[in-house]
Amino acid sequence: MTKERPRVLVVGIGNPDRGDDGFSAAVIARLRGHTPDGVHLLARKADPLALIDDWDGYGAVILVDAAMLVNELGRVHRIDLAENPLPLGWGPPSSHAFGLAETVELARNLGRLPRRLILYLIEGQNFETGASLSPAVATAINQIAERILADLTPHCGRTDSTEV
Amino acid sequence: MATRTLRVDYIARVEGESSLDLDIRDGSVAGARLSIFEPPRFFEALLRGRGFGEVLDIVARICGICPIAYQMSGVHAIENALGIEVEPPIRALRRLLYCGEWIESHALHIVMLHAPDFLGYPDAIAMAKDHKPAVERGLALKKAGNELLRLLGGREIHPINVRIGGFYRTPSRGELAPIIESLKRAREAAIETLRWAASFPFPDISCDYEFVALRHPDEYPMNAGRIVSSAGLDIAATEYETRFLERQVPHSTALHSALKQHGAYLVGPMARYALNRDRLPAEVQTLAGEVGLGPICRNPFRSILVRAIEIVYACGEALDLIAEYEPPAQPFVAAQPRAAVGYACTEAPRGLLYHFYRLDPEGTILDARLVPPTAQNQGVIEDDLRAVAAANLDSDEATLKSRCEQSIRNHDPCISCAAHFLTLRVHRT
């Protein structure tokens, strides 16, 4: 019997070994075992362009990412990417290939954006290799996990998870 | 005296950060400087004092786009030092892994970074609105290449499965079987991408490059062969430093390479193709002819076609390697440290990549030298810029800037590897 495909995908984007970039992986770890049935958890360390294939077939996708400090360390932004582009200046700086903002807009122009796409973005400060989470960022892990669980309210049961 | 200054502070759609200064005096190009201002990365110094077994994990970190190239040159150089010969199945798996990197790297550059130049779009995002099938093909090709990296390398970015003497783990035939259909589709997508790119408008330009690439008796070069050039060079990797030199220039954090007594030279797809077209299967040579590629391509704007030809080839080669694969009895042969020096050149997607290591009796790295393709191509890139700028001197600043940036992207520079792209500054006097 073919297993029904999970309907909601939650993706944490970031390198857990790069200070506040590890926030997303920590949120995914906190959600593991607590999300409703039909929810798939994914931790993606690199290559945002691959998200276009990751979210193929999902009706709703929640992304978690960390950005460089703009206003307030640890401040969390909830952005509806199905309706709005990721504001310029957000997201970690990268000279390589495609970042999250470029991937979302490419998917939008290809008609491959999920019907619902929410991004939780935290403002971080320290992205050094081997650094720990900043205290203000670590404090937000539970808060964001709970907000995501609230977003997932229509679902019930257990989850499966994947590391990429 | 009429002075015009054109400056591009950050060149987009390349890997890393650099800038360009053009000096135009009395209506002619007096100078072109490609300034690589990405901070020096000190990988060679980082390797000193490390064990030979750590090399492949360290050098894989040099580039997120071509980590396999660094691992391949690294593994062959260390094995050269330690006197290790690997079995044919290990050699085949390494070539298969390299096929994956050529496919994903070339697909990213052709469709996402280079094609918008020819079609008048600021980027692939805008281009995707009007060229959805082409962009989808590019994504599918990149995915197929990444599948090979994940399967053989352990993961797509900075793979972990290559080790001195072989692999940590080798796949069964059954594990390779699922990617056969994906590679067959990728080969068709590569042919469609080639025909799509062949429809682009190309400026009529011909450059008198000295091409440098590996040449192998039987194969289109990846992991093995002698270093040859269109001017008659024919040497082993062990002789690289006797004929090539690296020098510092004030405007760049990357060393510039030159061939002694010759000067600037070109590595990469155009060089590989010019020196090894006869090593391509007949059907791939026929495809090249169909899109107007003769035995040698000297128009750098048409390098996009050569890259597409190399994707077609890499997909077919990967299928052949999988069809003939028999797992080795052991995934690796043991490596015994000894005091030695080792040299290797392999063909990264962007061209020749040289590695040298000196080991002490315990296998600790005493000295390392890595010469990436972009460092080798900087002289030619500046020569191209002078020629392209000279042909577009009457253009407005925006057009001149666009042509110069495109001229640089023709060579798919990986500034990250070379040290890291583009600010254009034109100085007219």
Short description:
Chain A is of the alpha/beta class and 164 residues long. Chain A contains four helices and six strands. In chain A, helix 1 packs across helix 4.
Mean pLDDT of chain A comes to 85
CATH topology of chain B: Cytochrome-c3 Hydrogenase, chain B
> Which range does the strand content of chain A fall in?
15-25%
Oligomeric state of the chains in view: heterodimer
**In CATH terms, what is the architecture of chain B?**
Orthogonal Bundle
Q: What is the makeup of the main sheet of chain A?
A: 6 strands, mixed
Strand order of the largest sheet of chain A: 4-5-3-1-2-6
CATH class assignment of chain A: Alpha Beta
Can you give keywords for this protein?
heterodimer, A: 164 residues, alpha/beta, 6 strands, globular, B: 429 residues, alpha+beta, Cytochrome-c3 Hydrogenase, chain B, 4-stranded mixed beta sheet
Can you characterise this structure?
The complex is a heterodimer of chains A (164) and B (429). Chain A has helices spanning 23-31, 51-54, 100-110, 135-151; strands at 8-13, 39-44, 60-68, 76-80, 116-124, 159-163. With 164 residues, chain A is α/β, with parallel strands linked by helices. Chain A has one domain (8-163): HybD-like (Rossmann fold). In chain A, helix 1 links the parallel strand 1 and strand 2. The two termini of chain A are 27 Å apart. Chain B is α+β, with helices and mostly antiparallel strands and 429 residues long. Chain B contains 15 helices and 14 strands. In chain B, helix 4 (88-119) packs antiparallel against helix 12 (303-324). Chain B has one domain (3-428): Cytochrome-c3 Hydrogenase, chain B (Orthogonal Bundle). In chain B, a hairpin with a 2-residue loop joins strand 11 (340-348) and strand 12.
